[in-house]
Structures are given as C-alpha cells and as structure tokens.
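Entry 12.
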Amino acid sequence: MSKERLTIDLDEFKPEPKKVDPQTKAAVEKVAENNGFKTRHAPEPAARTAPAVAKPAPATAPAETEGEGEPRRRGRKRTTNRNTPFAVKLRVETNNMIYDYADRLECSAIAEVIELALGALQKELDEGIDPRARAAAQVAAKR
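Predicted 3D structure (tokens):
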C-alpha cells in the first residue's frame, strides 16, 4: 500500500463574490427602515456613527382564559433559587388558569402558584377531603 495522497485543485469551482450596487442597497435599506424592518447583521463601520435608538415593543392584548387561543406566557426577571426543570403538557385552560392565579396573587414565578396549590392540596388531604370528589362536585355545581 502506498502512502501517496491524491490532491485535488478546486479553485476553478469557487464562486465569485456577488457585487452589490450601492444605490440599490441604499434604496432597499431605506424601504426596509420606513416599514419597520430591522437588519440581522451588524451595520457597516461607516454607519456606526450614531447610536441606534430602540423603539418600545407594541403592547399586546391579554390572552383569553376561556380555553381558546394560545397559552399565556410571561417572562420572569428575578432569581427564585428553583433549579429543577419540570415540564408538563397542560390543557390551555389549565395553563391560563395558572397564569391568572399568578397575576391575582402577584407571584413572581409560576412555580410559586404550583407550590401554593400543593400546600392547599396537602391541607385537604390532612382534613380527610378527597380532592377528586371535591373537584367533581365543583364541576357539577357549575353546570
């Protein structure tokens, strides 16, 4: 077996760089800026003279809690010392109910709502109340 290596010269297959017309580029950038589009790349060094001013994001309408639409989510900002992930699949109604309770109780973390609910569940169990029977009775009373 020989130790010779085969070399391939692919220089003739290299694509040529695209040439951009500066007038066309400026026109496209102006139209994009007028329509609120943001560039996804860093501006060229000549364009960095003035700092960009960020516009506030438009306010969105609150999500419906009737079980329709997208599940609600909101960002949390402070650390909570909770470091164990817990991912579950919920019905949209249940998800929105958790977020509604978080808003009403002014909880800074959704996990706090779950912790409070677990405390209430433990209290029911300690009092000898069957939580499934209680929940079924609540559903029947609503109808």
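Annotation: Residues 59-65 have pLDDT under 50 and may be disordered. Residues 110-126 form the longest helix (17 residues).
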